[in-house]
UniProtKB/TrEMBL annotation:
InterPro entries: MEMO1_fam
The organism's taxonomic lineage, starting at the top: Bacteria, Pseudomonadati, Spirochaetota, Spirochaetia, Spirochaetales
Family listed: Belongs to the MEMO1 family.
Organism from which the protein derives: Candidatus Ornithospirochaeta stercoripullorum
PANTHER family: PROTEIN MEMO1
Designated name of the protein: AmmeMemoRadiSam system protein B
Length: 267
């Protein structure tokens, strides 16, 4: 069963040649094993996602994507997976496996509809030697769930698995019903999101969820869980490149902040 590329031709180009202008060749490798990455349309997020896939450890040929749900209201703490065997991308159909997370529920519709999953698939397809699995987790019952779920996920993350938490950061302005900062909002959002990213990079996922679960960081649950997996695994985190939806545009009262956090295995 194939997960169709629902957002192809809308949130990113349709053809492989146009997509390669965004993904690049991805022929280089590095030592990264996990990341928090944005999931906006690739015009906004493509360069940030690419910066991870250009430096991923070449041994990490299985990718587990953990995304929030933007289209289905899910119970707090629910873990949604799928039975897809392939995922369509502009480059190839990527082998897809069920994420064998204890207590997870299969719901292919949730996975099919989710752009927070799909934005990474052109990069995985272009990389050429990767498989993928999915989990959707929208929120937690309490901050301590970040550690509990991380312990389940850590059991299936081996030395061949790369982990991605799918999350944009602050959504600001009347459109998002979130505008507490008044003048110099962009600068204040940058400070707010820098503090959140630093906390996650320090592998303090439970603390980050407690501090930011009421913010408009849409993937704070996946991000907090991945930070806790990093703590369990002993990975070293650092903040990566960042951007906003206003970059290269005229001033707008509505904008979204994009941050990245990268983890590497301590040698």
């Amino acid at each position: 069963m194939i997960r169709k590329a629902k957002f192809r031709g809308m949130w990113y180009p349709f053809g492989s040649r146009d997509n390669e202008l965004i993904t690049g060749s991805l022929s280089s490798n590095g030592n990264l094993c996990a990341a928090i990455l944005p999931h906006a349309g690739l015009y906004y997020s493509g360069a940030l996602i690419r910066s991870f896939f250009e430096k991923i450890d070449k041994k990490r040929v299985k990718v587990l994507i953990i995304s929030p749900s933007h289209y289905y209201a899910l119970p707090a703490g629910a873990i949604i997976t799928s039975d897809f065997t392939f995922s369509e991308t502009p480059f190839r159909d990527v082998p897809t496996c069920k994420a064998a997370i204890s207590g997870s529920i299969i719901n292919d519709d949730v996975i099919q509809q989710e752009h927070g999953i799909e934005m990474f698939l052109p990069f995985i397809g272009k990389k050429g030697n990767m498989s993928v699995s999915y989990a959707v987790i929208s929120s937690l019952q309490n901050a301590s769930d970040a550690k509990e779920i991380a312990e389940k996920i850590a059991k299936i993350v081996d030395t061949e698995t790369a982990l991605i938490a799918s999350s944009d950061f602050t959504h600001y302005g009347p459109r998002f019903n979130y505008f507490p900062f008044g003048q110099n909002a962009l600068k204040k959002v940058e400070q707010h999101d820098s503090e959140a990213a630093n906390l996650l990079a320090e592998n303090k996922g439970e603390e980050a969820y407690r501090a930011y679960c009421h913010s408009t960081i849409c993937g704070i649950a996946p991000a907090s869980i991945v930070a806790e997996v990093a703590r369990i695994k002993g990975w070293q985190g650092s903040c990566g490149p960042h951007a906003t939806s206003l970059d290269g545009k005229e001033k707008d009262e509505n904008f979204v902040s994009y941050r990245t956090v990268f983890w590497r295995k301590n040698e």
